[in-house]
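[SOLVED] Predicted holo structure with zinc ion

Edit: marking solved, answer below. Original request kept for reference. I posted the sequence and ligand SMILES and asked for the 3D complex as structure tokens.
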Amino acid sequence: MEKKLGWHELKNVVSTSYRCGYCGESIASDKGYIGSWPNHPGVQAWILICHRCTRPTFIDDDNVQYPGSLFGDSVKDVSDVSVDRIYAEARRAYSASAYTGSVLCCRKLLMHIAVAKGAKAGDSFASYVEFYAIIILCLPMLRDGGIISGQKVMKRITRSIWRLKKKQRN
Ligand SMILES: [Zn+2]
């Protein structure tokens, strides 16, 4: 059974909807604490308590949430514990605006998955990218009974980039 925090002297506050940065659930909390600056009447900030995981979220006077909601979606049934942890760290880093840390986690994730799929451990990052190009772009062509040609690979890469750009525009 998951442990739940008990909060002392918890107050009723205006119900506020947000996506919890700890458990990832979209909730509306009406329990927490209010804050105001000296000589400025009224509420300027909140600490809201998630009723699911009981963790606190701070919402500042610019309505910015800390920790931010986790970026991306969770992935169920990941059998490799280290892959699961690295992915979770990448999501948390992104949510904390630590983009460089998130990118480094994603690179590490890519290397872990490549090794799990048969790439040689300890190779360069570039070799893992090449591995993906072969596994993801070329093998399906072989599976479909096609012949791999440079033109076919470039066509597939161009199509993938075009799809990615289209997704980014939407
Ligand atoms: Zn939560």
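OP edit: The longest strand covers residues 26-35. Thanks to everyone who chimed in.
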